[in-house]
Amino acid sequence: MTAQKIIPARNWGQRVAATLLTIVVGLLVFMVATSRHINWSAIPQYIFDETIFDGIRLTILFTVLSMIISIVAGAILATMRLSSNPVLSGFASLYIWFFRGTPLLVQIIFWFNIQLFIPSIDIGSFHLDTNAIVTAFIAALLALSLNEAAYMAEIIRGGLLAVDSGQHEAAKALGYTPTQAMLRIIFPQALRVIIPPIGNQTISMLKTTSLVSVVAAQDLLTRAQNIYAKNFLIIELLMVASIWYLVMTTIASCIQYVIERRLGRSTNQTPVVWRNALRLMRAEGSNG
């Protein structure tokens, strides 16, 4: 008996939609590529410009520093939020509510203008102007870090809550202190849940740093703006900045993929606490 050939049903709706989408995108690309108002030769001229490279370096620095600060602060806030102490839990909840509820752009402008209501720091004979401390760089870094810490706190808290409660009980039975249980058992398992959203937040932070251009913090977008303010090649310089943002986010996405794959390989391994528990039971059995 010959096997029957299965012919898949033709979805004409999808084919028509795909054809229309291809035509529309093709027309848009053709319109942009043939535009006489874009100086295409200026893009390769500025793509490797030293000023642009300086902006890229500062953008990466903003991203790395703000993510490190926000992860540390977020871990502290998440622990406070899970605390049974109402003062600690309430403060963490209030912090998260405030920084997630106000726009980041407003926070950047606020920190940049903090000297308006705190003009100086005076402790006895010690005097220091606020402007000397909170520069454009520091104001931008503070705003990015403190805002991101609120999101990191919720991400880390969600990862800690995702760990089975039995892990806490098993760690307690093995004689671990709460701090040891958190650092050696709970947090390493929570990393599998925490790492993917942290990777997404890092990629988002690379683009979010462009907001610091409002205080002229000399990031990639600010440098591009400085150039096109002189030569009026606005679209061309924005394209240059967009290309480099795409390059940076693509590299960050590849790094995130590699890290997630490595974490995924260990998902089938027995958790550390259970391996310790098995060793303890084997030791007691051999002694008996």
Summarize the entry for a quick read.
This protein is an all-alpha fold.
How far is it from the N-terminal to the C-terminal residue, by CA? Answer: 66 Å
Helix- and strand-based class?
mainly alpha
Helix and strand pattern: HHHHHEEHHHHHHH
The proportion of residues in beta strands is under 5%
Uncertain runs: 267-274
Cα-based radius of gyration, to the nearest Å? 27 Å
What would you call the shape?
A: flat
Question: Your description of this structure?
Answer:
The protein has 288 residues and is mainly α. Helix content is 75%, strand content 3%. It has helices at 12-33, 42-47, 50-81, 86-101, 104-112, 130-133, 136-162, 165-173, 178-208, 220-231, 234-265, 272-287, and strands at 120-123, 126-129. Strands 1-2 form a two-stranded antiparallel sheet. Helix 3 packs across helix 7 and helix 3 runs antiparallel to helix 10 (220-231). The longest helix is centred in the first third of the chain and has 32 residues, at 50-81. The protein starts with 11 loop residues before the first helix and ends with a helix. The model is unreliable at 267-274 (pLDDT under 50).
Topology:
Elements: H1 12-33, H2 42-47, H3 50-81, H4 86-101, H5 104-112, E1 120-123, E2 126-129, H6 130-133, H7 136-162, H8 165-173, H9 178-208, H10 220-231, H11 234-265, H12 272-287
Helix pairs in contact: 3-4, 3-7, 3-10, 4-7, 5-7, 7-9, 8-9, 9-11, 10-11
